[in-house]
């Protein structure tokens, strides 16, 4: 009897087994991190291998956030034990690879919802949940991400919401800030850098991000600031504020890690952490104009929020007399949280390099991001020297001069060989003029009288108040010189490791 039963069971299972076997032929196996994905050979579901860095980094970022969340006293019971509690939403999941990696690789994860509106993508997610034996943790959901996230407006469900769209994340932000819990983490990718960081579509950039990009060297930092400002404005409507934990410009996209908090008091800072920017069309000098002021009352210690004062500059540039252009509004606050970066760096160092192929790059990028000054923007020494027509000073020498005048300087992760400083442009142009005059034979002879460089060279007001006039004194090597020099010689993997031919943003699937 039992024998017959087993035989009939075998007969039933046989066609199912062969069906699965045939189906498997239609898939490639892809291993990334601790997940293995069966990926259709036919171009039906989106997968971009080059985004492993984004996924590796996101795993470290979510882990760092969860450690900070727990050490802030949340989710610890009386015995100090922590049960799995983290709910993650990957709202635009495609193959499900990222969600599955979260399921495997985030300690204390309770639930990951992998959502996509493409039936082929959801089929792939379901297959791969089985394949990775993550049925208890990862759930597939077929639906429009905006509608799905909007359900949680009254009761935010997710500690972590990850948005990794094609192009801009803007349409998803409103519902995403509603779906994320208080003190939760929002992860945002935008790949539309042509709009966000380019100068060709200011009207589109304004429509999507509520601001325009600043021309010149710092377009990638201003891209980050535009995305942050759009998210901060959206969050403010729901009495929520944002705290950028890490804001990176990477290859062809930006990736942001943002803590979202419900705090009507903090929302009051929204105007004073938003700015517009004036940018000189001739020499590239920039000025920031905050859109509000936060002042502390000396007697009571309380803060008052008032209208901003301005403008910080006239219609024409103080240095070269060319017209000033306007950019923004954009985020004026810090781009990173150093404690968060330290945690990510620590975690990244502890990972198995065989499993996580991009840890060197994480270390390189975050080391640079960590030392960045909080002040907006950067420039390449070469951009300034091309205005006054002289060879560019080496970056560490320029940093030294800024330091000797009492200012700070740092590098930036967003552009190689660019410098950030809290010095006013008066000091920057003074240093450049001193540098130029020291090279007498090159002293801007070929400049036309109407050029910005000519005006700067003949503007005797520049540096009038600065006491340190001698070249030798001004450019004397100091700590900053050595700091910047060693940071530059430290082997930083800023760019993609092992890129394939034609790597970059991938197009949508064709089927
Ligand atoms: C760039 S892919 C996501 C890649 C994935 N996060 C990864 O790491 O491999 C974008 C996905 O978003 C989905 N999508 C686009 N708009 C959507 C919407 N409104 N609702 C749900 N899914 C959407 C697409 O079907 C596509 O699979
Ligand atoms: Zn100018």
Automatic annotation (TrEMBL):
Belongs to the class I-like SAM-binding methyltransferase superfamily. Trm1 family. Keywords: Methyltransferase, RNA-binding, S-adenosyl-L-methionine, Transferase, tRNA processing, tRNA-binding. GO terms for cellular component: nucleus. Pfam families: TRM. This is tRNA (guanine(26)-N(2))-dimethyltransferase. The gene is TRM1. It catalyses: guanosine(26) in tRNA + 2 S-adenosyl-L-methionine = N(2)-dimethylguanosine(26) in tRNA + 2 S-adenosyl-L-homocysteine + 2 H(+). It comes from Komagataella pastoris (Yeast). One of its GO terms (molecular function) is tRNA (guanine(26)-N2)-dimethyltransferase activity. It comes from the Eukaryota.
């Amino acid at each position: 009897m039992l024998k017959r039963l087993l035989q009939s069971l075998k007969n039933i299972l046989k066609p199912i087994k062969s069906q699965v076997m045939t189906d498997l032929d239609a898939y490639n196996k892809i291993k990334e991190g601790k997940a293995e994905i069966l990926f259709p050979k036919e171009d039906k579901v989106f997968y971009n291998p080059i985004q492993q860095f984004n996924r590796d980094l996101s795993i470290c970022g979510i882990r760092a956030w969860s450690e900070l969340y727990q050490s802030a006293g949340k989710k610890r019971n009386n015995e100090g034990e922590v049960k799995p509690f983290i709910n993650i939403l990957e709202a635009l999941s495609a193959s499900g690879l990222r969600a599955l990696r979260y399921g495997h690789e985030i300690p204390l994860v309770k639930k990951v919802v992998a959502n996509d509106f493409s039936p082929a993508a959801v089929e792939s997610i379901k297959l791969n949940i089985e394949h990775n034996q993550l049925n208890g943790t990862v759930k597939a959901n077929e639906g429009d991400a905006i509608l799905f996230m909007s359900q949680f407006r009254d009761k935010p469900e997710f500690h972590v919401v990850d948005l990794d769209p094609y192009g801009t994340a803007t349409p998803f932000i409103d519902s995403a800030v509603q779906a994320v819990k208080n003190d939760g983490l929002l992860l945002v990718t935008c790949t539309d850098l042509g709009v966000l960081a380019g100068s060709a579509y200011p009207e589109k950039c304004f429509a999507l991000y509520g601001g325009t990009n600043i021309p010149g060297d710092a377009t990638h930092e201003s891209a980050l600031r535009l995305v942050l400002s759009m998210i901060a404005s959206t969050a403010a409507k729901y009495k929520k504020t944002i705290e950028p934990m890490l804001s990176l410009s990477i290859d062809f996209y930006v990736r942001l890690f943002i803590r979202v908090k419900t705090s009507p008091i903090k929302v009051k800072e929204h105007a004073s952490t938003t700015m517009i920017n004036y940018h000189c069309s001739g020499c590239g000098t920039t000025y920031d104009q905050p859109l509000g002021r936060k002042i502390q009352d000396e007697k009571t210690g309380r803060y008052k929020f008032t209208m901003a004062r301005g403008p910080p500059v006239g219609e024409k540039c103080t240095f070269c007399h060319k017209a000033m252009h306007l950019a923004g509004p954009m985020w004026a606050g810090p781009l990173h949280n150093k404690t968060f970066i330290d945690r990510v760096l620590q975690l990244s160092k502890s990972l198995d390099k065989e499993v996580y192929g991009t840890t060197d790059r994480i270390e390189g990028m975050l080391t640079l991001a960590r030392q960045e000054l909080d002040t907006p923007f950067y420039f390449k020494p070469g951009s300034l020297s091309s205005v006054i027509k002289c060879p560019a000073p080496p970056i560490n020498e320029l940093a030294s001069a800024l330091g000797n005048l009492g200012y700070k300087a740092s590098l930036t992760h967003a552009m190689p060989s660019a410098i950030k400083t809290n010095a006013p442009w008066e000091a920057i142009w003074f240093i450049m003029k001193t540098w130029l005059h020291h090279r007498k034979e090159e002293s801007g002879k070929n400049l036309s009288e109407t050029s910005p460089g000519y005006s700067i060279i003949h503007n005797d007001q520049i540096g009038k108040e600065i006491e340190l006039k001698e070249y030798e004194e001004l450019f004397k090597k100091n700590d900053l010189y050595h700091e910047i020099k060693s940071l530059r010689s430290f082997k930083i993997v800023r760019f993609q490791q092992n890129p394939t031919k034609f790597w970059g943003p991938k197009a949508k699937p064709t089927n």
